[in-house]
Design a protein that fits this description.
Number of helices: 5
Order of helices and strands: HHHHH
Low-confidence stretches: none
Largest sheet: none
Mean pLDDT: 82
Number of strands: 0
Shape: elongated
Structural class: mainly alpha
Length: 100
């Protein structure tokens, strides 16, 4: 009798198995422009500049890579002239990375 009770208890508890959630639904495919932007960002070097505005981060990376003379060296002249945050980031990146 005791054995039968254990078997029933095991059978009942086996029915309470939790299945994993289904995989997420596929998201909408990205547009060609989104894909190009994603690839451009992935190919650029990254720096830990969390907390800074995007324009400062972009400028810092461009300035630092310019100081290092890497393949990513660039200075967006139009943005440098028009965007104070970008130019500040570029100047900071160029001066800090140029010292190393």
């Amino acid at each position: 009798m005791k054995r039968r009770a254990i078997m029933v208890l095991l059978a009942v508890s086996a029915g309470c198995v939790v299945l994993p959630p289904p995989p997420p639904a596929p998201s909408a495919p990205e547009s060609p422009v989104q894909a190009q932007e994603r690839r451009a960002k992935a190919s650029r070097p990254t720096y830990n500049l969390s907390g800074y505005p995007p324009a400062v981060r972009d400028g810092y990376i461009d300035g630092c890579e310019s100081a290092k003379h890497t393949q990513y060296a660039r200075k967006d002249a139009g943005r440098f002239a028009d965007d104070a945050q970008y130019s500040m980031g570029w100047n900071d990146g160029f001066s800090i990375c140029g010292k190393k």
